[in-house]
Write a structure and sequence with these properties.
Blueprint (H helix, E strand, L loop, with lengths): L1 H8 L2 H9 L7 H13 L1 H8 L10 E4 L9 H18 L6 E6 L5 H14 L3 E5 L5 H10 L4 E5 L8 E8 L9 H10 L15 E4 L1 H13 L7 H5 L3 E4 L9 H8 L4 E3 L25 H9 L4 E5 L6 E6 L5 E4 L1 H18 L7 E6 L5 H8 L3 E5 L3 H10 L4 E7 L3 E4 L8 H17 L4 H12 L1 E10 L2 H17 L4 E2 L2 E8 L4 E4 L5 E3 L8 E5 L4 E6 L5 E10 L7 H19 L2
Parallel strand pairs: 2-3, 2-4, 3-6, 7-8, 7-9, 12-13, 12-14
Antiparallel strand pairs: 1-5, 4-5, 9-10, 10-11, 14-15, 16-23, 17-18, 18-19, 18-21, 19-20, 21-22, 22-23
Helix pairs in contact: 3-4, 5-6, 5-8, 7-9, 9-11, 11-16, 13-14, 13-16
Length: 581
C-alpha cells in the first residue's frame, strides 16, 4: 500500500532509492523521516536522493539530513566502512591507526563518534580528540601519531545546516587522485547493510593536551625569526574565532609566542554551530569581521584576525593610509606572508637546496613574479591545499617554504599539510609587529611590493545555485563557456584559453594548442591581451560557480597607487559587466 501511494507522486529512480531506506538496515527514526518527506515534501525528497554525495575540493560536504545526498550516520558510515576495507587492502598485516577530529557544527561530535565506532568495529585503532579541535591540528596529528589516515568532521565556513567529512592520508595531506577514486569505487560497491556499527571501545583512545602542546610547539618553531620581544608586546591584536574551533588554540599559541596584548571578541568566542552573530562564518566575507573591526577601533588595534569554524582560513585587517582598519584579501595576505618567508629564507646562513613555494591556478599571478625575484621556484596547482600537499609529497628532494591560495588560506612549512590558520595567524602577527617597529604598516609593505613586481588586483564573483536545478545551471554555464568561448572582454582580445578539463591550452592568435601538465579539473581560464586573467570554476564544496578576475598594471612609484588602483577597479567592473556577473 505504501509503495503504491508513493508511486503516484514520484519518479521511480528516486522511489527506488528512498525505498532502500525503509528497510531494516536503517533505524526507525530515519525511516520515519523518509516517510515524512514522501508524504509532505516531494521536492526535498528528490534533492535528498537524486545523487550520492561526492568528494570535492575539500572532501565531502552536504546538508545534514536523511538520504544519499545528505550528511548522516549512514552516508558517513558507508564512507568509513569503505575506507576501512581500503586501509586493510593497502596496508596488509600492519596495525592500522586513524586519528579523528571534529569542529563546532551540529552533530559533529556525534558523527565523529559514529565514524570512530565503525573504524573500531573493523579492528582499527582510533585516536579521537576528546573535544572540538582545528582542522590543521588533525593534519599534524596524523603524522605525529604515525597514523595511516585521519578524518575531520567539518563543513568549514558553509552555512549551519551543513557538515562534512575530510579524509587525510599518511603524509597529513588530503586524498588526491587516483587514490580518492579508488576509495570512492570501493565505497560505491558497498551496501548500507555492510556497515559495521558495533563499536570496540578498547580500540578508541581519547587524545587532547599532549597533542595540543606538540602542535603549538611546532607552530611556534616554524615562525621563529628572532622578532624582538618588545615588538611583539607592542602589537595590539584583536582576534575572533567566529564561534569556531580556533578559540581552543590560537590565543594560547599567541601567548606562548610572546604576543600578550591580545583582545578577543568575547561574543564570538563560544563555539556554536548556529553562528548566531554572523550571516556566514566565512572570513572571506567582510561582514563576518564586523564585530572584530568594531573592537579593533575601540582598542586601537594594529591588526584584526578572524578564522573560520574549522580554523584553516583567516581574514586579516590592518591600518590603511587613512588610519582606519581595512581588510586584506586572500591574495594580498598570501603575497605579504610569502615575501616575508622568502626574505627570511634568503637571510638564513645555510638555506636548504631546491626551495619552492606553492600557489594555485586561480590565485594571483604575482606569486610567480615574487618567487622569481628571489630565485625560488613557484609551483602552481589546482585549487585546494591537497594539491600543495601533493607538491611536497611528490618532490621530497625539495624544500617547501610556504604557500597559499586566494581563498584566505596559507601554510607555513610542511609540518602541517593543509591550510593552517593557527600558524598563519602567528605569522601575520609576527610580520605586523616587525613592520610596526619600523614605523611602517602592512599596506606600506604591500605598495612597495607592487612597485617592484607590478600592481595586481583581484576580484571574486561567486554565484549561488542551490539544489538539483542549480547544479544543472552551473553545468550549462560551463558548457556555454566552452562551446561559445569569449573572444573579447572589456575591449581586450582573448589571447589564450586554458581548459583544465581537457588538459589543453589554445593560443587564439596562432591557433596552436599545447598540453597542460596538471590533473584534470572543471576549470576554464581566459588570458587577455591587456594582461587580465579570468577563471571560471564550479566550487567543489559549495553550490556555487566562481569567477576569478585578475588585472594588473605597472606601478612606478607609491605616489601613483591611488590612480592606478582606480584604473584597475574600473577594468574589473568592465570585465564583470561583459561577463554578466
Amino acid at each position: 500500500m505504501w509503495k503504491l501511494f508513493i508511486m503516484v507522486y514520484h519518479n521511480s529512480e528516486i522511489l527506488d532509492k528512498a525505498n532502500q531506506w525503509l528497510t531494516e538496515s536503517f533505524d526507525s527514526h530515519t525511516q520515519n523521516q523518509i516517510k515524512e518527506l514522501i508524504a509532505h515534501n516531494p521536492e526535498e525528497l528528490e534533492d535528498s536522493f537524486y545523487k550520492n554525495l561526492d568528494f570535492g575540493t575539500g572532501g565531502m560536504r552536504g546538508i545534514m539530513g536523511v538520504g544519499t545526498n545528505r550528511i548522516n550516520k549512514y552516508t558517513l558510515g558507508k564512507n568509513t566502512q569503505g575506507l576501512s576495507l581500503y586501509l586493510k587492502k593497502k596496508f596488509i598485516g600492519e596495525d592500522l591507526r586513524v586519528a579523528i577530529a571534529y569542529d563546532c557544527r551540529h552533530d559533529s561530535d556525534t558523527l565523529a563518534q559514529i565514524v570512530a565506532n565503525v573504524f573500531s568495529a573493523n579492528g582499527i585503532k582510533v585516536y579521537l580528540f576528546s573535544s572540538l579541535r582545528p582542522t590543521p591540528e588533525l593534519s599534524y596529528a596524523v603524522r605525529h601519531l604515525q597514523c595511516h589516515c585521519g578524518i575531520v568532521l567539518t563543513a568549514s565556513h558553509n552555512p549551519p545546516e551543513y557538515n562534512g567529512y575530510k579524509v587525510y592520508w599518511q603524509d597529513g595531506g588530503q586524498l588526491v587522485p587516483p587514490q580518492d577514486n579508488e576509495i570512492i569505487t570501493l565505497i560505491n560497491s558497498l551496501d548500507f547493510s555492510d556497515i559495521k556499527f558495533d563499536t570496540n571501545p578498547d580500540l578508541i583512545e581519547l587524545i587532547d593536551t599532549a597533542v595540543d602542546n606538540a602542535f603549538i610547539d611546532a607552530s611556534i618553531a616554524n615562525v621563529s625569526f628572532n622578532t624582538p620581544e618588545a615588538a611583539k608586546e607592542n602589537l595590539t591584536v584583536v582576534f575572533t574565532s567566529l564561534h569556531g574551533t580556533s578559540i581552543t588554540l590560537i590565543p594560547e599559541t599567541l601567548k606562548r609566542a610572546g604576543f600578550t596584548n591580545v583582545h578577543i571578541v568575547e561574543e564570538q568566542a563560544i563555539p556554536d554551530g548556529n553562528f548566531p552573530t554572523v550571516k556566514s562564518p566565512n572570513p572571506e566575507e567582510p561582514e563576518a569581521l564586523k564585530m572584530a573591526l568594531e573592537l579593533g577601533e575601540k582598542v586601537q588595534g594594529d591588526i584584526v584576525i578572524g578564522t573560520d569554524p574549522d580554523c584553516d582560513r583567516l581574514g586579516i585587517a590592518v591600518r590603511g593610509d587613512d588610519g582606519k582598519l581595512a581588510i586584506l584579501n586572500g591574495n594580498q595576505t598570501m603575497i605579504l606572508m610569502t615575501d616575508y618567508l622568502l626574505e627570511r629564507f634568503r637571510e638564513s646562513k645555510n638555506p636548504p637546496a631546491a626551495p619552492f613555494v606553492g600557489s594555485t591556478i586561480v590565485s594571483t599571478p604575482m606569486m610567480e613574479k615574487l618567487a622569481a625575484s628571489y630565485d625560488v621556484e613557484c609551483k602552481v596547482g589546482l585549487t585546494g591545499f591537497k594539491w600543495i600537499a601533493k607538491m611536497i609529497k611528490d618532490h621530497p628532494q625539495q624544500y617547501f617554504i610556504g604557500g597559499g591560495e586566494e581563498s584566505f588560506g596559507y601554510m607555513v612549512g610542511d609540518f602541517v599539510r593543509d591550510k593552517d590558520a593557527v600558524t598563519a595567524t602567528l605569522l601575520a602577527c609576527t610580520i605586523a609587529a616587525e613592520t610596526k617597529a619600523q614605523n611602517l604598516s602592512l599596506y606600506d609593505k604591500l605598495k612597495t611590493l607592487y612597485v617592484k613586481h607590478g600592481f595586481y588586483k583581484e576580484a571574486l564573483v561567486a554565484l549561488v545555485k542551490k539544489g538539483k536545478k542549480g547544479a544543472e545551471e552551473i553545468k550549462q554555464t560551463m558548457v556555454n563557456l566552452r562551446e561559445n568561448p569569449l573572444l573579447n572582454v572589456n575591449g581586450s582580445s582573448v589571447t589564450r584559453i586554458e581548459d583544465y578539463q581537457t588538459s589543453t591550452a589554445k593560443d587564439i592568435v596562432t591557433g596552436l594548442t599545447q598540453d597542460i601538465d596538471i590533473p584534470k579539473s572543471n576549470v576554464l581560464i581566459y588570458h587577455l591581451k591587456d594582461g587580465s586573467k579570468i577563471a571560471a570554476r564550479p566550487s567543489g564544496t559549495e553550490p556555487k560557480i566562481k569567477f576569478y578576475i585578475s588585472v594588473c598594471e605597472p606601478l612606478t612609484s607609491v605616489s601613483e597607487y591611488d590612480s592606478i588602483a582606480d584604473k584597475l577597479d574600473k577594468r574589473i567592473l568592465g570585465i564583470k559587466s561583459d561577463l554578466g556577473v
